[in-house]
Amino acid sequence: MRTPFCFAAFAICFALEAQTQNPPPAPASLPRVTAGIPVNYDEALVGTYQLPDPLKMANGKQVRDARTWTEKRRPEIVRLFEENQYGRSPARPADMTFDVFDTGTPAMDGKAIRKQVTIYFSKDKNGPKEDLVVYVPAGASKPVPLLLCIDFSPNAGTFDDAGIKLGEIWNRDHKRVPAERGSGMFHMKIDNLLAAGYGVAAIYYGDIEPDFLGGLPFGVRALYLKPGKTEPAPDEWGAIAAWGWGMSRAMDYLETDKAVDPRRVGIYGVSRLGKTVMWAGARDTRFALVIASCSGEGGAALSRRNYGETIAHLTAPDRFPYQFCANYARYAAHVDQLPVDANMLVALMAPRPVLLQTGTTDYWSDPKGEFLAAVAAEPVFRLLGKQGLGTSQMPAAGQPIFHTIGYYMHDGPHGTMPGDWKYFLEFMDMHLKGGQ
Ligand code: GCU
To answer: Domain tally for the chain?
Structure first.
């Protein structure tokens, strides 16, 4: 009698597990070919793979203590990502300057004080630069924790605030033209963040580096080309690394602003800018927390899992090869040879908190691939005395798992939905409140 009962129980468990372990099946209407390359949306066909072990040194030795991780293995993994995926970025420019042209103006119906800064990346005032807008809650008596956002819109489009410098945007013809006010794709409402005691700051990714093929001459990467070169070397920065570098330059300013607590600055970005915040957080440990929305392939989703977008799609010549270092395309047909994977990217955040937000119908970005990367990053967080997700069971939509690693899938498409902010705030409160 026992055997059939156990078998039945196992079958039920298995059925339940199978239900919750996979997001809903992809509809047949999704395009199955992108850039001439097939796209797989069938869980049965994701293939088998072995992830590189974040706790095994290149020399084969196992990492058994926090010190070896921090001093040896972590820098080793950063270098591997630099050389093979995002490219090496330069250090902070010696001749960078901050022009604080708005030194503190009441804004957001009196709920905030706004500052604006132009960060010149070199001494050439006509050269590459970025505009930073900073809001801190009005009446704050102590330096505040802050969320630094990198956006698809110039700052005047991101916030509903007539006092923001208009700035410029790249139009469809790849020309810089004056931005429009309040027209941002991801128009941000920040009342709840301000009310909870957070500052909010933003930069526009197009100030740093354009987001189109052939954009190199018009962005900050051009400033750093070696004499006689028209392209960065194969292991030098792509656009994502440049955008992340721009976040670090914003942090350089924030460290000088007495209204902000530089030890409690989190970063947030969506999609390709979700990839950007993952890499910015990995490289620059001054960032205390990362919220990566739908970062997908080339971000927090496992590359070795053949589901949705792959390295081959990302680096196809007419898509986004410029976003990565040129070496990355080598792995389009050989993902098994990539010395890193997204589990290592998540691990580079340890012991700092990182929240991966996905969406049920964002099949292209592979929400399950992000979950599995988080699961596989967990041993590094544990080594450093922090808690990972603590389960290998993928949660249903709307059921966040929040520890030092957070995972939250909304019921809906690619991107951040207004209802997600409640969860972001909860995660920030868990980790950025309290400590000074
Ligand atoms: C494309 C791209 C993704 C990227 C997304 C975005 O879909 O393939 O990798 O995340 O654009 O930035 O919106």
So the answer is: 2
